Amino acid sequence: MNVVPTIKQEWSLLVSGGTSAAFLVFGQRWLGDLSHQTWFALMFVWLFTVILLSAFAVVRHAESLATKLGEPGGTLILTLAVTGIEVMMISAVMLTGKGNPSLARDAMFAVVMIALNGMIGFSLLLGGLRYHEQTYNLQGANTFLAVIIPLAVLGLVLPNFTVSSPGPTLSPRQSVFLIVMSVGLYAVFLAMQISRHRNYFMAPASLEPTEAPYWKCSSGDQDRSVLHLMLLLVAHLLPVVILSGQIAVPITHAIHELHAPPALAGVLVSVLVLSPESMSAVRAAMGNQLQRSVNLLLGSVLATISLTIPAVLTIGFVMDQTIILGLDAVGMTLLLLTLGLSLLTFASARTNILLGAVHLLLFLAYVMLIFER
Q1: Contact (CB, 8 A) for 353 and 122
Q2: What is the pLDDT of residues 101-140, one digit of tens each?
Q3: 3-state secondary structure of 124
Q4: What is the pTM of this model?
Q5: Domains, the chain, ordered by start
Q6: C-alpha torsion angle, residues 221, 71, 291, 180 (rounded to 10)
Q7: Within 10 Å of residue 370's Cβ, how many Cβ atoms?
Q8: Rounded to a whole number, what is the largest CA-CA distance in the chain?
Q9: Is 136 helix (H, G, I), strand (E, B) or coil?
Q10: Which residues contact 333 (CB under 8 A, 6 or more apart)?
């Protein structure tokens, strides 16, 4: 293997690795006083950019693995990689300072609204404008929603109505039940996705992509083995783990000093980790490969809810922290409206621009209501 071409292609790993080392050594000093606006902006933009760079590198290698492994394993690897980044960032922010007991709820809700409304709406709109109608596998989408809907309602709505613990929280027994159920349901779903019903998550045989497939190995990855690509993926993930704890400091500082809505922290985390995956989904829709968009976006929502809930509830047990999961009345209304609209959108095997426009309208309503309740 030629070392120089590898270094040129993986330059982002050098940047993220150097940044991680610098913040491990000097981070406490650099982030100790963020009262100066210029210094705060420099620290936040630096960390945000490097984490985003690492996330794009993770997605690049995940897409190369997707090419080698085929569907639906390819989208599964990409989804789990992105969800892993999100869980790491949420955990880091929760463990920083006084923590944020509602961060996990806000981040999960943001993923649902961004993926199910923003990105699905954008993908359906662009795909509809270009191809009028697009086709996907209806059984796969319904399978995703069959697991997403009960987990979303039990995790984000039910805590508002339980009486065993104060506020929109769950009692220890209820938390354990939700952890086991979330992990168990996701395990059953994965077994179905990768073995018994793989065909549910593959494009209909009659559908031929209009464009050349976007999902391909990047130059330099074509001759690399699956093991080599997985090692590179993990190598790019490690700086995200380290820097997540660092960026948590300016995020919490900004929310406090600017008196911004607390939900904005969850939105920032979600935007950061969903950006590369969202771009992949839009590119797939523009290439008339809507099935991959559906797999990516619905898979992200399912993995986020299924894995984030157990992770944060476990952190709550270990760190003796209160975890707020229940949404407020506005959030519950938007969530239930989104889930209902998704059922209507994926009730037919063909999509059009109207469905995309309605999803985008809901996303814009969500953004407005973050700042104006």
Answers
A1: no
A2: 788 899 889 989 999 999 999 999 999 999 888 888 889 8
A3: helix
A4: 0.84
A5: 3-371 (1.20.1420.30)
A6: -110
A7: 18
A8: 63
A9: coil
A10: none
